[in-house]
Amino acid sequence: MIKTLGVRKKNRRRFNWQIFLMAMAGVLFLAIFAYVPMFGIVIAFKDLDYTMNVMADLQSKPFVGLDNFIKFIQDAQFKTVMTNTLMLGVLELVITFPIPIFFALLLNEIRNNFGRRLVQTCTYFPHFISWVVFGGIVTAFLSTDGGFINSALMGLGLIRSPVQFLSNADYFYAIVIISSVIKGTGWGSVVYVAAIAGVDQEIYDAARVDGANRLQMALRVTLPCIAPTITVLLLLAISGILGSGFDRIYMLQNPLNLTRSEVLDTYIYKVGISQRRFSFTTAVGVFRSIVAVILLEAGNITSKKLTGNGLF
């Protein structure tokens, strides 16, 4: 007996270098791509706009304090950019975030394994299409020259002439949200499907004994059991409310819908890359990161008080 315990302790103490290397690969990735670039934050506090060599001028240029942040707040496009970014972020949070949860609940109700896998495969597929291709598909569907949406609406007699969806800024929010739902619902449900799979089946058996139907079990058993997972992903979504996603916005953007489509990501790209205002756009990026941290902390505190769950 003593010998067996000694072997077990020895096995527990043995260094597992394979797992260590796998963990270190993740640490190395974060160090190179997440922490080393933080050195560039200093650019936001220096006057490096229009410079030809940022690294060479980084030491020689003087500090300007918060001047770049003040310029952004006083910029003529500040109100438009922030309004569009916040509107899209809130709409994403209210509409796009809950849909994968309900979709995962519906998948859980499909008892036929083949049918479930078929639905999952079909809904996961759009995620693997790049926004360059998917944006082109959306543009083609909404085209006034034989586009599927206009053709269908005219065939049903709902409109008399084609609607210029992408040329009318009023439709832009709806186009982005609907296309994001189509592209991301299936993949977004993966985490929730995995969480549902981990729910103890004895809880469902007890609910059936108590006379609960499938809807009641979904609402009163499944949802409470995956609530911690929902809380974590909700907090992450709240912190990223200012991140509209450059690729999807840029692919659907045109000069006619700029009043609704110009967000922080596209604004940073146009001003920072096209105009070489490196310090100014770095300050915009730092501003967005600070807001994200504040939102994450506020959401975490609120979640802990209301539900007892949080990130940290």
Give helix % range.
55-70%
Uncertain segments are: none
N-to-C series of helices and strands: HHHHHHHHHHHHHHHHHH
- Look at the helices and sheets and give the structural class: mainly alpha
How large is the radius of gyration?
25 Å
Outline type: globular
> What's the story with the biggest beta sheet?
none
* Binned strand content: under 5%
- The overall strand count is 0
CATH architecture classification name of the domain at 76-276? Orthogonal Bundle
Q: What oligomeric state do these chains adopt?
A: single chain
- In the CATH hierarchy, the third-tier topology of the domain at 76-276 is known as MetI-like fold
Number of helices: 18
| CATH level-four homologous superfamily name of the domain at 76-276 | MetI-like
Mean pLDDT: 88
Which CATH class of the domain at 76-276 applies here?
Mainly Alpha
